[in-house]
Design a protein that fits this description.
27% of the residues lie in helices and 28% in strands. The protein has nine helices and 16 strands. A hairpin with a 2-residue loop joins strand 1 and strand 2. The structure holds NADP nicotinamide-adenine-dinucleotide phosphate. NADP nicotinamide-adenine-dinucleotide phosphate binds next to helix 1, helix 2 and helix 3.
Length: 328
């Protein structure tokens, strides 16, 4: 196999930066499965990693991209064979193992999920880690008694990748979704993908009492910081919060009162190292009952050379929905 293109992340003179460059297969991290990448995607973690805004990458240079979907070229593991269509997301992809922004990838077989029959490779990456995280969060809150009849569900960072997919999936399941966004120009878009109402971040009165008016039966938090503190104080009795994001900060200032007087539950969601049986189950749900209805509105397509500019926009909170990266 000749050399091929990859977006590699370098660390030089204290600067971390991405660059499209040529690489050979034997320069990639070791693995049992080699696949030709069709699509990758952009997650917040990719933007943090490739720009150095977050200390995500553990060895340089490294091919970026925590997500990839493509077709197996060769496999030394009996579970996969040439021609199989597969998804590989999370684990150490784009962190300590060469990731998905590459025309070919080589990964451990234990990280690979067969592409479900009712998803295309493009759809798998329109979902990617963002869709997987949204579905995992819904799955975990359902196990904690979340039900449409219990009341309104709040989704913040609403125009983001995880949040847009959450809104789409929740509305299809019959939930009344309130979307909280910093983008005044996107209220109509949020309603189109399933929000019943939209709250503007600007001017939102968060109050300061340990317990405020109880508003939400469930909440999906991309933002963390001040907004997560506010959510704990405004949950209904027995309300459940999925905490998976930190786009607005890593702090959490609250008191124990929401937990001991309202029975509020705070559920952590980590998409990175979900055990494979649960990972496959969630991907199967993404291909069936949780398959979003508005992927065409939520996802746009970019190329590898568009990535550096896209990362900068994402870190400024200026992107909307999901970017699928066309690789081959
Ligand atoms: N735990 C996990 O396994 C896991 C998996 C995937 C993602 N995540 C995390 O989840 C979060 C969302 O990821 P994503 O890929 O969906 O990112 P994204 O597309 O960039 O979405 C984040 C959204 O948050 C809002 N936002 C940005 N900066 C903000 C600020 N300073 N204050 C308040 N809101 C702000 C923006 O929405 P509006 O403009 O609409 O308000 C933005 O679109 C990230 O923190 C990411 O690291 C975690």
């Amino acid at each position: 196999m000749n050399k091929f293109n990859a977006l590699r992340v370098f660390s030089e003179g204290g600067d971390v930066f991405p660059r499209v460059t040529e690489i050979a297969l034997d320069e990639l991290a070791a693995g049992d499965v080699v696949f030709k990448t069709a699509y990758s995607s952009v997650n917040y973690k990719d933007a943090l990693a490739a720009t150095g805004a977050g200390k995500i990458i553990r060895k340089f240079p490294l091919t970026g991209g925590i997500d990839a979907a493509g077709t197996v070229v060769s496999s030394s593991d009996g579970r996969f064979k040439a021609g199989d269509e597969i998804i590989c997301t999370s684990y150490d992809m784009g962190v300590a193992h060469d990731g998905g922004y590459s025309q070919y990838c080589r990964v451990p077989a234990g990280w690979v999920v067969p592409l479900p029959k009712t998803l295309s490779l493009f759809e798998a990456m329109a979902l990617g880690t963002a869709g997987y995280t949204a579905a995992l969060a819904i799955h975990l809150l359902e196990q904690n008694d979340m039900q449409p009849a219990s009341g309104k569900v709040l989704v913040n960072g609403a125009t983001g990748g995880v949040a847009t997919l959450c809104i789409d999936m929740l509305s299809a399941l019959g939930y009344q979704v309130t979307a909280l966004t910093g983008k005044d120009g996107e209220h109509a878009f949020l309603k189109k993908i399933g929000a019943a109402e939209v709250l503007a971040r600007k001017g939102l009165d968060m109050g300061s009492r340990p317990l405020e008016k109880a508003l939400w039966s469930a909440a999906f938090d991309s933002v963390g910081g001040e907004q997560l503190g506010w959510l704990t104080r405004t949950m209904q009795p027995s309300g459940v919060i999925a905490s998976f994001g930190n786009a607005g900060g890593i702090e959490l200032n609250t008191t124990v009162l929401p937990f001991i007087l309202r029975g509020v539950r705070l559920i952590g969601v980590d998409s990175g190292f979900t055990p494979m049986p649960l990972r496959r189950k969630v991907w199967q749900r993404l291909a069936t009952d949780l398959k979003p209805r508005h992927l065409a509105d939520i996802a746009s397509t970019i190329t590898m050379s568009d990535l550096p500019a896209y990362f900068e926009k994402m870190l400024k909170g200026e992107t909307r929905g999901r970017a699928v990266v066309r690789i081959s």
